[in-house]
Specification:
The protein is mainly beta. Helix content is 8%, strand content 38%. It has 4 helices and 19 strands. Strands 11, 13, 14, 15, 18 and 19 form a 6-stranded mixed sheet that branches. The protein has a 5-stranded mixed sheet with strand order 3-4-1-10-6. The chain has a 5-stranded mixed sheet with strand order 2-5-9-7-8. Strand 3 and strand 4 form a beta hairpin. It is elongated and about 75 Å long.
């Protein structure tokens, strides 16, 4: 006799840093109680790309959803640079954890709102003390995820992360660039960066720095670009182009220093 399985739930992980919005570097692990429940009901869990799919035998599905059981998982991120480009996850890893669920979110009753977090993206509101979550051991997990089963629950639930905003700092160290006159960095909004500021690097080498006036969202595929020009006069467009498209930050190299102690923004250093 053929057994038919039905995909009754799909969890989708998204991140707006990536061009395709998909977050693929993760592990989704059930706690022991949840693992026992899944085994008892013959639920198959398949993780592929940015999705975790739950499948059950068609004839068992109605009874399964009427159990109203809360499934608990630990979400681990395998990308070691995840925190460098992700907003809203800064927490004390020894005492706090992100708590994501489909029952207590303030928007959970809204039609079409299937997120497992309080706002449109995972953020500070979702951080809880680990001791407040029963059976949520302190591990290197990024989040504890609870999914309440119930009849007519949404077929898709989402965990959405937002890219971090950082101050971009271009540091010119190339000798041929330092010899040019009246340098400026012009943003993709045609506004100049702050600078130039002359500094000395730890090796005593001279460098010139330009800093963005406001934080800029990190993105794998930025919609605009910044340019380096010479012979720049404020308010004029008569400058000469030096570099048409300056590089974007390397997410492997983001500093924790902040140019403004009253703001909790990191800054991204880009050496040219």
């Amino acid at each position: 006799m053929t057994t038919y399985y039905h995909n009754f739930l799909t969890l989708r992980l998204q991140h707006n840093y990536f061009a395709d919005q998909r977050l693929i570097g993760f592990e989704f692990m059930p706690d022991p109680v949840t693992q026992g429940f899944l085994s008892k009901w013959g639920v198959i869990v398949k993780q592929r790309s940015n999705k975790v799919r739950f499948l059950a035998e068609q004839e068992k599905l109605d009874k399964l959803l009427h159990t109203h059981l809360k499934l608990r998982f630990l979400l681990k991120i395998t990308d070691v640079y995840f925190s460098n480009y992700t907003h809203g996850i800064d927490k004390d890893s020894s005492k706090e954890i992100l708590y994501l669920n489909n029952t207590s979110a303030e928007n959970s009753g809204k039609v079409g709102y299937n997120n497992l977090h309080q706002d449109d993206f995972v953020g500070e509101k979702d951080i809880q003390e680990s001791t407040a979550l029963a059976h949520a051991p302190l591990t290197d997990a990024v989040a504890c995820v609870d999914v309440q089963l119930y009849p007519e629950m949404p077929a898709d639930l989402f965990i959405k992360f937002r890219a971090k905003d950082t101050y971009w700092k271009y540091i010119l160290i190339s000798k041929h660039l330092l010899e040019l006159e009246s340098l400026a960095v012009i943003g993709d909004n045609n506004e100049p960066f702050d600078g130039p500021e002359e500094i000395r690097l730890p090796d005593k080498q001279r460098a010139v720095v330009f800093k963005s006036v406001q934080p800029i969202k990190l993105s794998q595929n930025p919609s605009g670009f910044n340019k380096l020009v010479e012979n720049y006069v404020a308010g004029s467009t008569g400058y000469s182009l030096v570099i048409r498209r300056l590089p974007v930050p390397n997410i492997n190299q983001i500093s924790c220093a902040s140019p403004n102690p009253n703001k909790q923004f990191t800054h991204s250093e880009i050496f040219i």
